[in-house]
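Reviewer 2 asked us to include a model.

Predict the structure of this chain.
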Amino acid sequence: MTTENNNQISMESTLEYSKKTSRATARRLSMFFLRRLILLMITIVIGVYITILVANMGGYVDTILKSAIREEVNMEVAAMTAKTPMTTEARTELAESMIAERERLAGLDQPFVRRSITHLKNALLLNFGRARFMISDHGSRLVRNIILERLPATLLLMGTSQLLLFAVSLFLALMVSRHYGSIWDKLIVALSPTSSIPPWFYGIFLILIFAAWLKVLPFGGMVAAPPPPTKLGYFFSVLKHMILPASSLFISSFLINTYSWRTFFLIYSSEDYVDMAKAKGLSSRAIERRYILRPTLPNIITSFALMLVGIWTGATLTETVFLWPGLGTTIYQAVSKFDTAVIVGTTIIQAYMLGITVFFLDFLYAIVDPRVKLGGGN
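Predicted model (structure tokens):
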């Protein structure tokens, strides 16, 4: 009877200790992720505000906008009073009143610091306002509509090229690491510096070869003009137009990605525990899966996560070279036209995507790497 009571007391103590440990772990995890979330939000706020300052050139863009408003109003007043007798004083008074009204509507009558804080609040709430110069294909000046209209084209191009790049590079890196010192291994090592060439540079060469010389692929755009009437024809037209820009993005990063991951695989394949696994008689596939791929998963996951962020941001110069109607081309046009609202809007989307990615990477690291301890503790 005494033994049974002791066992019951021991079980109750173990259960109570387990509950306390679980509560303590949950509390540490909650505090850890709360701190991470607060830190990321502070970082995003600072980054967004700096973007607003840079996009406005510290207020210099206001001078440009005021000059543009004054020029527009003077031309309108000149056209309005061309056939109407009006004194110079009356014409000047009319122009100044119209200029003051348009500056008020644009918010240029307020100090730049106050407006920058307002822009920051609206940007964080995803209220990007109206573009001053740019317009969507459907006639809307709302920055949200402009971004949503261009986003699918960027997701299509970047998603296709980057996912293909990730899968092919990972597969070839693992294959080359199995044959260290082979001709293919030496070739990848020798050609990896060519990845320093930007994708738009490769794009120009691809256009010259396949569009100008061979005339087998289009120079640019997303679909033929006029668009094919059938859905299948439209699909093949988009696919044909996507070959050159996707190939330039793939070629520019393919060798360096393969070389980097091949190096990681070689480092972990030379560890002592790999030699021990070989001595135990494990198959090469099992060794790769358990002892080589698993330690490199944090690096692979980080590359994949940053690649997903790149899918949302687009490739500005590459899209511009190929006249691809995505976010990259939109950013280029916004910068060239000093359209601050569009610049800030696209940057906010990128900042949020990067912040969310970094936040969830902590979860993935804890799952794939037992050495990572979230929430502190011993």
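The two ends are 38 Å apart (CA to CA). The chain has 13 helices and no strands. We have added this to the supplementary material.
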